[in-house]
Each structure stands twice: as structure tokens, then as C-alpha cells.
Amino acid sequence: MATKNLETVFWVRIKRRKTRLLDALRTEDFTYLNLPGAISAHCSDPKLFCREAGLPVSVIDKLRDFCIETCNASQEVLGSARREAAEVVGEPDRDVLVQKWGVIRNRAKVLATGRIQELYEFAEKTVTRFPGPDLPEQAADLFIHAAYWIEYAFRALVSGLRYISSKVDLLMAGDPKPLDGARDICKLEVSAAIDEIKALFRASPDDFVIV
User: Fold this and answer.
1) CA 99 to CA 85: how far, in whole Å?
2) Is the dihedral of CA 128, 198, 146, 51 positive or negative?
3) CB within 8 Å of 153: residues ≥ 6 apart
4) Residues 14 and 123 sit within 8 Å (Cβ to Cβ)
5) For residue 44, is it left (φ>0), alpha (ψ between -120 and 50) or beta?
6) What's the pTM value of the predicted model, to 2 decimals?
7) Distance between CA atoms of 141 and 15, rounded to whole angstroms?
8) CA dihedral sign of residues 116, 85, 190, 16
9) CA gap 39, 200 in Å, rounded
10) Could you tell me if residue 28 is left (phi over 0), alpha (psi between -120 and 50 degrees) or otherwise beta?
């Protein structure tokens, strides 16, 4: 079993990815997702290196499922924010509405942070089950590639929150449509992210290209 070592290359890479996502969630700046190299350029066949490690394929399947659950968590967090926001629709005082929505929005980001932390704890435990030195790196490659799409899903959450923030006047007028608009924005992008993760975990090396 690989030893947990903060100086190990794969461990540093995973930690760096988590830090970048948490910073993006805090600042609401996900522009790095559009930069060259934002997505992993290579990944091995997940089923193959699992067998090479002498581990059941279920180890990787559980990681896939956790990644998908975390993507869905972005929708769940937005859904919670939307339900809370529905209670302030029609608030005539703009300052009061903005203040209440700000509290709701910040709470959503805190909840999202918790789900991201849970995912990375699980991913780190999974990667360290692979014997070194090469197999942990392959497992890390797989997760880091999936992490791009998880970040994509949480960018969708932020987009939904921003959309609601931009429609304060409609909320004051008693119009709840911005809440539905935010849901639709998030749902579309999260669905795309989940499709990519599903494809990633059943893909072969030939399916990956340098981006």
C-alpha cells in the first residue's frame, strides 16, 4: 500500500487540485477551467490498473460513484438555496432582500465546500490503496481528470447563484422565475459533467487526447 506522504508527487497534485477548486468556489472565479492543461492529458484504463494492483474493480467503481454524487451535490446545494430564496420573493425592501439572499448564498458555498472536502478525503484514501510507485500515479491521473468535471459542476452552481443575484428586481416584484432559471442553468451543465465522468471511467487509454 502506498504511504501517505505529502512530498509524493501524486499527493501534491491532488492537494493542489482541491485547493484550486476551493479557491474558485470562494472567489467565484473558474476562468482557469478554460486554460490549457486544466484537464488531465492522460489517463490509464481504470479497470486495467485496478487488476494490476490486485484490487477489485469495485474500488474504482466506488470512486466513480462518489464523483457523480458530488456533481449532483452542486444541484442539491442550489436546490436548497432556491427553497430558502423562495421565502424572500416579494420582499419590498431591496436592502433586506439583498442581505437575506447574501446569507443564503454564502451558506450554499459553505455546504458546497463540505461536499468537496468529503470527496477529496475519499479520493485520497482510494489512491493510497494502490501499491507504488506507478499505480498510485495512475489512480491520481484518473481522479484528477474526473476532478475537472467536478469543478465544471460547481462552476454551474456558482453560475446559478450569480443568476439569482442578477435578478433581485424580479424577486422584489414577486416573480420566482429567476429561481427556475438558475435551476435550469445548473442542471444542464451538471448533466454534461456526469456524462463525461461516466465515459472517463469506462474508457481506454486511446480515448484520451492532450488538450
Assistant:
1) 11
2) positive
3) 70, 71, 74, 189, 190, 193, 194
4) yes
5) beta
6) 0.88
7) 13
8) negative
9) 12
10) left
Amino acid at 165: S
Could you write out the three-class secondary structure of 139-188? HHHHHHHHHHHHHHHHHHHHHHHHHHHCCHHHHHCCCCHHHHHHHHHHHH
Judged on CB neighbours under 10 Å (0-12, 13-18, 19+), 77 is buried
Residue 186 CA, chain-centre distance (Å), reads: 12
Q: How would you write the pLDDT of the chain (211 residues) with one tens digit per residue?
A: 444 454 467 888 899 999 999 999 999 999 999 887 777 656 667 888 788 888 888 998 999 999 999 999 999 999 999 999 999 999 999 999 999 999 999 999 999 999 999 999 999 999 988 887 788 888 888 899 999 999 999 999 999 999 999 999 999 999 999 999 999 999 999 999 999 999 888 854 443 332 2
Q: Cα dist. 133→1, 7, 18, 130, 200 in Å?
A: 10, 13, 22, 9, 23
Number of neighbours of residue 105 by Cβ within 10 angstroms: 18
